[in-house]
Amino acid sequence: MPDIYARIIEDHNKHRTLLAGIATSQGDFDQRRSLWEQFYYDVKAHSAAEEETFYSKLMKNSEGQDPARHSVAEHKEMDDIIDDLEEMDIESPGWLNRFATLKHDYEHHMDEEEKEIFGKAREIFSDSEAVKFAGQFSLRKEAELELVDEKAKEKLED
User: Fold this and answer.
1) What pLDDT score was predicted for residue 1?
2) 3-state secondary structure (DSSP) of residue 142
3) What pLDDT does 39 receive?
4) I need a surface site. Which of 19, 51, 110, 153 has the fewest CB within 10 A?
């Protein structure tokens, strides 16, 4: 069974592929919509599951608090951009400009997690904990996928 680091990287690689596809979807709005929908649902579920099953545990350790808080703050910033994009016309030039910001920020975030945060987490968590967290992450992500629309609706009502 993979550990939490491999499981998150698996999602990151999927997200990188989707981001690249969206970025190169010039004029093919059906393709862009399809890729965006896949990205939207997967990244929303991913970040919620990651916060609940990885970052919440990292925050319990004084050495992990600052990096975990930083990453969760970045999640919030990217979530705001994703929500902006969801409200915009996907065929507009403004959409692609805003998307470019998201792509840049999210690629930076993934790289930072993989190169810096995981190193700190490996100092804190045992190998068996990392494997256990991967299972928890996968279960939580499946549950979150079913909640994405519900959470978006609640956010609009607030």
Assistant:
1) 80
2) helix
3) 97
4) 153
**Other beta carbons less than 10 A from residue 87's beta carbon:** 9
In contact, 14 and 42? CB cutoff 8 Å = yes
Distance CA 58, CA 97 (A): 34
Sign of the torsion formed by the C-alpha atoms of 77, 83, 84 and 85: positive
Amino acid present at 27: G
**What pLDDT is recorded for position 21?**
97
Q: Which residues contact 141 (CB under 8 A, 6 or more apart)?
A: 11, 45, 46, 48, 49
**Predicted pLDDT of residue 155:** 55
- Give Cα separations from 2 to 7, 99, 119 (angstroms): 6, 31, 16
Helices and strands of the chain, counted as H and E runs: 7, 0
Q: How far apart are CA 22 and CA 8, in angstroms?
A: 21
- Nearest-angstrom CA–CA distance, 68 and 116: 11
* Residues of the chain below pLDDT 70: 149, 151-158
Q: Which two tokens stand for residue 4?
A: 């939490």
Q: Provide the greatest CA pair distance for the chain.
A: 49
The burial of 72, by beta-carbon neighbours within 10 Å (0-12 exposed, 13-18 middle, 19 or more buried), is given as middle
